[in-house]
Fold this protein.
Amino acid sequence: PSSGSRLSAEYFHDWRLQSRTFNDMAAWYDERANLTGRGEPIEVLVDRVTSNFFNVFQAAPIVGRTFTTESTLGIAPAEVILSHSFWQRRFAGDNSVVGQPMTLDGEVLTIVGVMSREFAVRTNELAESRAEVWRPFRLVAGDRRGMGGMLNVVGRLAPRVTAEDAQAELSLIARRIEAENSSYSRDW
């Protein structure tokens, strides 16, 4: 967005569906959650991500797997992936953690993977994300009464597409969205 703000889920959904200059796009936002049930309760930083997040980054886990992706991104399984540092600190680097339950904010989730020490995501606000856990969220297009921007977005360009080509296409899509939903996306 020209304002430098984050995108709404609805706006991202439209970009992703209408874009031809990107192979794929992923989105995420961060939140804090309480981890209970294993030792002392602690607060952890969770990145809520689209199910294709790790695929867009072409990132593989060192233990287990990443999330199963769906073209609609409408599925959010009750799964989590651990950062390498969190896995070392909380689970002593135990490979058998994959398949075990983990309780965040009272919800029981299954640990499906651990990312490498090198995996890091750069954001606009921070030099590097400090996520300890990644968890998918369900992306559903819906109410267009307000932007409610909270998503960071990343895209992988299609072959032989320049950044200028992608910017031109996204600007065109933004103008189309604004024309169709003027109260939804003024000046984005």
User: Anything to note?
Assistant: The radius of gyration is 18 Å.
